[in-house]
Amino acid sequence: MTGTFISLEGVDGSGKSTQAVMLAEALRDRGHDVVHVREPGGTPLGEAVREVVLGPDPMSPWAEAFLFAAARAQLVADIIDPALAEGRWVVADRFIDSSLAYQGAARGLGIHQVAAVNAPGIGGRLPDLTIVLDIAPGAATDRRAGRGSVDRIEDEGDALQESVARGYREVAREYPDRVHLIPAAGTLDEVHARVMATVIGNL
Ligand code: T5A
Q: Which domains does the chain possess?
């Protein structure tokens, strides 16, 4: 028995963490056994990498890409693959498409090059469905306003986020069977309804 793997993606502040929680709860209400993970993080190594990669010290684009890939490899080995092997559902707040959009597209490393760097660590594991919350970066910045702390990547501002948004559209064109863009404007419940419709329509 193999479980089902769904990832949620989007620019910073697109609302995907909120929607990941709502999706996990909705799936549990339907009787599914759901594991909810976030990237970078989800394992002791991943949380340690998160501190470094989102911390204030500058790093090269490839160093950044390798750090995210290392955290992902550990998450797949320790949490995602075992959960799927038990037939559970996995809802991930970011996965490989974050690296493809941020490092591959926005940092200019190349989507295929970054996918290739990640490939050995994930051993072919990809989500069954990836939902990208599509929102104008300025609107996402407004949603984050007032939350206080800003990490190193958020601190780079809307120009980077614009490139990331274009990157996600490129990723969706590259992997159209798996990656679906949905509008992230509207209330939490309106966006959740779009997420559920996408899940039901594609799984
Ligand atoms: N990164 C990550 C890479 O560069 N490469 C990688 O491979 C990976 C895995 C992660 C950073 O690392 C980068 C991407 C990121 O820059 P993070 O702390 O996990 O850092 O940051 P984010 O994933 O961006 O998480 P955020 O919490 O900042 O944003 P979310 O998850 O998009 O948004 P969310 O749900 O927290 O909502 C933000 C605010 O908006 C409100 C929420 O209540 C919240 O206050 N909100 C809404 N308000 C109105 N209407 C709606 N529909 C709303 N939905 C949410």
A: 4-202 (3.40.50.300)
